[in-house]
Amino acid sequence: MTVAISCGEPAGIGPEVAAKAWAALRQEIPLLWIGDPSHLPAGTAFQVIADAAEAAAISPNALPVLARDFGGPVQHGSPVAAHAQGVIDAIAQGVALCQSGAVNGLCTAPIHKKALADGAGFTYPGHTEFLAHLGGRDRVVMMLASDLLRVVPVTIHIALEEVPQAFTARALTDTILITHAALRRDFGIDRPRIAVAGLNPHAGEGGKMGREELEMMIPTLDALRAEGLDIAGPLPADTMFHAAARARYDVAVCAYHDQALIPIKTLAFDDGVNVTLGLPFVRTSPDHGTAFDIAGKGIANPSSMIAAIRMADRMGRARAETRT
Q1: Beta strands of 229-282 (E only): which ranges?
Q2: What is the CA radius of gyration of the chain?
Q3: CA 70, CA 86: separation in Å to the nearest integer?
């Protein structure tokens, strides 16, 4: 049940937290790392392998590495344009390993989107959209998850002024259906309880603060309830995230990026996990960026990477059980 880790931006903390996560998990989960081994922190025990099948036997003693030559040293805190294509190719190799069944899941270290755009013409808004392309999916869903809370934004990396136009009945329906299916298949929740946040303050307060809830959200949610889904909402977002409210649902579906991510990053900043739902393979990622300001200093916290690897392992095992 091997989990692959793509290297992410080597000038950031990705190689460091991957090495630290392997040290913490090496007796628990077979891992392999895809990247240039020269970018790993000094003193990391690693072994270059020819294929993923070797990883399980090696992982407790050294970090198995599927080596890619990035053609130059790392400048911590400063991305190098020549490395951009290597970062992209490492992600693609990780997806290919998942699709072939060689590994059970992919955990992606953070990328720097501007560095990839400048160095290799990367046109995707982020990891999520690139993985959807590699997985042949028109629509996938971004979930941020921890032991305290799971959140899903319907709209993601767009300006706030664009949200009302993008937050449509189709987008809301697709997001809820993909999330519902993933919670059943990948998280083992037979009847997911889904709470849906309103777009407007106080969920529109009967139309006084916006009519999206009345005109679009309520009919859409009613139609999904008629199909048997357990859905509460639209609910005022400002009362959805205290402990008693969180106990009433398995996931909170939110209208836009910050409505979803502020609560979970407040509650679980160090161990939140980014999960892409709706892919034909398992993908997780730590819920943090490249952290250029501390890269190369040896002080990066691996908690989110450890949580992401553990979640990828659990999800991969759940999928394997549903196939047998």
Answers
A1: 230-235, 251-254, 273-277
A2: 20
A3: 6
Instruction: For the full predicted model, state whether its pTM sits above 0.85.
Output: yes
Residue ranges of the domains in the chain? 1-143+270-324, 148-267
- Residue 218: φ, ψ to 5°: -60, -50
Torsion of CA 307, 309, 313, 316, to 10 degrees: 110
Q: Is the dihedral of CA 113, 168, 275, 152 positive or negative?
A: positive
Six token digits for residue 9: 């931006």
Which residues contact residue 147 at a Cβ distance below 8 angstroms, ignoring those fewer than 6 apart?
268, 271
CATH number for the domain formed by residue range(s) 1-143+270-324: 3.40.718.10
- Please check whether the two domains, 1-143+270-324 and 148-267, share a CATH topology: yes
Token pair listed for 308: 């992401």
* 140 CB burial (10 A radius; 0-12, 13-18, 19+): buried
Residue among 7, 1, 70 at smallest CA distance from 33: 7
**Strand, coil or helix: what is 323?**
helix
Sheet holding 251-254, edge to edge: 46-48, 63-67, 31-35, 3-6, 105-108, 283-286, 273-277, 141-145, 150-153, 251-254, 193-197, 230-235
Tens place of pLDDT per residue across the chain (324 aa):
899 999 999 999 999 999 999 999 999 999 999 999 999 999 999 999 999 999 989 989 999 999 998 977 899 999 999 999 999 999 999 999 999 999 999 999 999 999 999 999 999 988 889 999 999 999 999 999 999 999 999 999 889 999 999 999 999 999 999 999 999 999 999 999 999 999 999 999 999 999 999 999 999 999 999 999 999 999 999 999 999 999 999 999 999 999 999 999 999 988 999 999 999 999 999 989 999 999 999 999 999 999 999 999 999 999 887 665
CATH code assigned to 148-267: 3.40.718.10
